[in-house]
Design brief:
6-stranded parallel beta sheet; 13 strands; 44% helix; 377 residues; alpha/beta
């Protein structure tokens, strides 16, 4: 039997593209993989994957009671499972996963999708932040393998904990149906936002900018601000006019097709904590792989990649006038030559920045930790 790896998240597995890539790559390499996540009342049936999936149903949806309930349910479930290694994604599943690994004498792995103690929702509550810092200080030194999504975050973890952190970037898979040579669409251009509707994502400022923008904004995702953002858009008359559309959760296959049809992507973050400031979000690569230029916050990781590949326009702030000017430059009636150059750069960059390249490092990390007897190329 191949060695078994168990991964845990608090997300709905149908929409977690990062974990789909990681678990799929390790399963294809020859491991038996189980991904455990969360089931919402509105969750759709699980999509077929080349690995096992299991979702836990909880009574509570958010807050302290949710974390307590989910962690207890997760521990009880993990006690019924066997694995060669146990991997927690972020701090919100780390304690039960570490305990299960300790009880079984197997390696514990920590995958930091973000700097959990520095996300805006935690930074805004100092007492909550102190609790998560205690958990981080306990968990990180006990991991046999630790990795995160970008070099900047890896440096922060290494400085905090004095241990090595590997980097596995959250990059899109290179597909055959990539972008065709770009031309500015004649129809109403689509500005696309994909991701969580949470604090610090620049969404309030983006909606405020839209009355000045010559395009239609499509928002894919849900989050803590879902209701407030819909109310703001309605108050500005953007929903009634059709200039802003909220699609809710969109399955990855449909989202990739929608991204290919878009004109411009947006990846806007506020500097509300080190996690966002040093982030390297998957949507940056999703837009790049679709061949569409993007408007992106001028933060270190995006600046470094853009200096190398020139696929985005970076904005120094999120003032509505700044965003409107940046978006209009990339929309019909703006700078067509600049748009075409960015789109061409996207098509070249995707051949270098893709999951097929990135997964090789991921497989090497796990092969060193848990060797395969018969590895699959």
């Amino acid at each position: 039997m191949p060695p078994r790896l168990v991964f845990t998240v608090t997300t709905d597995l149908n929409y977690d593209q990062r974990m789909q890539r990681i678990c799929g790559s390790l399963a294809q390499a020859g491991y038996a993989v189980l991904l455990v996540g969360r089931q919402w009342p509105t969750s759709q049936p699980l999509q077929p994957q080349p690995y096992q999936q299991h979702r836990l149903r909880c009574w509570f949806a958010r807050g302290k009671l949710f974390y307590l309930e989910f962690n207890l349910r997760l521990l009880l479930y993990l006690l019924s499972q066997r694995a060669a290694a146990w991997c927690a994604i972020d701090l919100d599943t780390a304690l039960p996963v570490w305990l299960r690994a300790r009880l079984g004498g197997q390696p514990f792995v920590y995958d930091a999708h973000e700097l959990f103690t520095e996300v805006p929702e935690v930074v805004a509550r100092p007492r909550v932040q102190r609790v998560w810092r205690v958990i981080e200080d306990f968990i990180v030194p006990r991991a046999a393998l630790a990795y995160t999504v970008g070099p900047a975050l890896a440096c922060v973890f290494e400085q905090r904990h004095g241990r090595a952190f590997q980097v596995v970037r959250n990059i899109s898979r290179l597909t055959e149906n990539g972008p065709s040579p770009a031309s500015l669409p004649a129809a109403t251009p689509i500005i696309l936002y994909q991701g969580a509707l949470n604090a610090g994502r620049g969404l309030e400022q983006l909606l405020a900018a839209m009355p000045r923008v010559k395009g239609r904004l499509v928002i894919c995702g849900e989050g803590d601000l879902s209701g407030a953002l819909r109310a703001q858009a309605a108050g500005l008359g953007l929903v009634q006019s059709g200039q802003v559309e909220f699609r809710g959760f969109v399955l990855p296959t449909a989202l990739r097709e929608l991204t290919r049809q878009a004109t411009v992507g947006v990846m806007l973050l506020e500097n509300q904590g080190l996690s966002y400031y040093y982030s390297l979000a998957n949507k940056f690569f999703d837009y790049l792989h679709a061949g569409i230029p993007q408007v992106t916050s001028d933060f270190p990781e995006y600046r470094a990649l853009n200096e190398q590949f020139a696929v985005a326009d970076l904005v120094p702030d999120l003032e509505p006038t700044t965003l409107a000017a940046a978006l209009n430059r990339l929309l019909p009636g703006g700078d067509a030559g600049h748009y075409q150059q960015l789109a061409a750069n996207c098509r070249r960059a995707r051949l270098v920045l893709n999951w097929q390249q990135e997964q090789q490092h991921l497989r090497q990390l796990y092969a060193h930790l848990i060797p395969l007897t018969t590895p699959v190329p």
